[in-house]
Amino acid sequence: MLKINQLSFSYATKPVLTDINFQLKAGNSYALIGASGSGKSTLLKLMYGLLDADSGTVFWNDEQILGPAYHLVPGMDFMKYLAQDFDLMPFVSVEENVGRFLSNFYLKEKRERINELLTLVGMNEFSKIKAKFLSGGQMQRTALAKVLALEPKVLLLDEPFSHIDYHQKTKLAQHVFAYCKEKGITVLYTSHTPEEILMFSDEVIVMKNGSIIEKKTPQNIYENPKNEYIARLTGEVNVIPANYMKNENDLLLRPDQLKVVDNGYEAEVLQVYYIGKNYLLKIRFKDLILFIESNKKHSGKIKFEMIKS
Ligand SMILES: Nc1ncnc2c1ncn2[C@@H]1O[C@H](COP(=O)(O)OP(=O)(O)OP(=O)(O)O)[C@@H](O)[C@H]1O
């Protein structure tokens, strides 16, 4: 179990993290999400011991993770951190980068391990290439293989797939998360991509202005977001103020929770976007602009209803 207790941190005099408390269960994956500047990267750096907290503690089971004031070399063997800048050695090959932390004592095993990892991240054919000649996506794959090499107990990944093109991203993420699940590795990863957040996490942790404001399953976060900020981090959402539909509270509805029907609220279609399989209609309802998913390309006047009340 990874335990964060009353953690606070400031850069010089600027408070960035305030009273952070949460626990991560061993073997689970957690998406850490929040608007740009909310403090996600800073939190990962603190958890890895790259920064000294103003107050509070980070524990992996009984072992405390401390910052540079206590360690000459940051980091612990059981934990690996993938930074947004990859931290590769530019003048050495992909395989040497991946094998950087592996012992030279058992060379055959080392070679096999490197091959296994390069297969996992789809980099076998580039094994002899120097890191400086790789594309951004290839560097990111290599860096992922490197942090997995010693089979850590905990992985902290800062936007681990941000440089991989859409077509290959899901496949790579599926491989990496399946591998971590199988090995019982606890993963905390940041992402701004709804699919990545929802598909691969057991729980989603939401940050806002340096605080944790929610920790729930992806399904809960998507289907019953507590507020608009949380809803928008995981996809498009319509905010319908309470008085518009005689509801007690404002409603947060996803575009697929509104439906075009023969009898319902009247609206006007302003734009139609093809989103693959379905269309996203931008509609005007009274003085609100809403988005509604439909399998038809409507225009002009339509009627709609809410699927969720
Ligand atoms: N080295 C630094 N010195 C001073 N302020 C910093 C430093 N690094 C980050 N900050 C500030 O701390 C706050 C949190 O930054 P952080 O990088 O942790 O956010 P983030 O949530 O990871 O953002 P993003 O999603 O854009 O990566 C921001 O206001 C940022 O400007």
Structure description:
The protein is built from eight helices and 17 strands. With 309 residues, the chain is an alpha+beta fold. The protein has two domains: 2-231, Rossmann fold, CATH 3.40.50.300; 237-306, Nucleic acid-binding proteins (OB fold (Dihydrolipoamide Acetyltransferase, E2P)). The strands form four sheets. Strands 6-7-8-3-9-10 form a six-stranded mixed beta sheet, sandwiched between helices. Helix 3 crosses helix 4. The relative contact order is 0.12. It comes from Paenimyroides marinum.
Structure keywords:
single chain, Rossmann fold, alpha+beta, 2 domains, 6-stranded mixed beta sheet, 17 strands, binds adenosine-5'-triphosphate, 5-stranded antiparallel beta sheet, OB fold (Dihydrolipoamide Acetyltransferase, E2P), 32% strand, globular, 309 residues
Short description:
The protein has 309 residues and is α+β, with helices and mostly antiparallel strands. The protein contains 8 helices and 17 strands.
Which CATH class of the largest domain? Alpha Beta
Portion in strands: 25-35%
CATH topology of the largest domain: Rossmann fold
Which stretches of 5+ consecutive residues score pLDDT under 50?
Answer: none
* Share of helical residues: 25-40%
Number of helices: 8
Distance between the termini: 38 Å
Q: Describe the strand arrangement of the main beta sheet, using strand numbers.
A: 6-7-8-3-9-10
Sketch the major β-sheet: 6 strands, mixed
The CATH architecture of the largest domain? 3-Layer(aba) Sandwich
CATH homologous superfamily caption of the largest domain: P-loop containing nucleotide triphosphate hydrolases
Order of helices and strands: EEEHEEEHHHEHEHEEHHEEEEEEE
Q: Would you tell me the overall average pLDDT?
A: 93
In total, the number of domains comes to: 2
Identify the overall geometry. globular
Protein name: ABC-type Fe3+/spermidine/putrescine transport systems, ATPase components
Keywords: ATP-binding, Nucleotide-binding, Transport
Organism: Paenimyroides marinum
Domain ABC transporter: 2-234
